[in-house]
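tool=predict chain=A
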Amino acid sequence: MSENSLHHVLAAAAAVFGRPVAAEDSFFGVGGDSVTAVELAVELEQRLGGDIDGELVVDSASFGALAAALTTRVASR
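tool=predict ok
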């Protein structure tokens, strides 16, 4: 996982949820729902560029896993 991706994911999640989150926190564990999934995807698109599906957000076990999935996605481009 790229530290840069993790930084962007945690910063985007903090912006959406209005409080800091940790890499091991889960999206649903911090109160995520379908609306915040879209909000987080949009926030990440603005920070990282490209299209990010809300499904990727909800399917990731943690914010760290989301960062790893985004790093893999960018590497495969």
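The chain has a mean pLDDT of 92. The first helix runs from residue 3 to 17.
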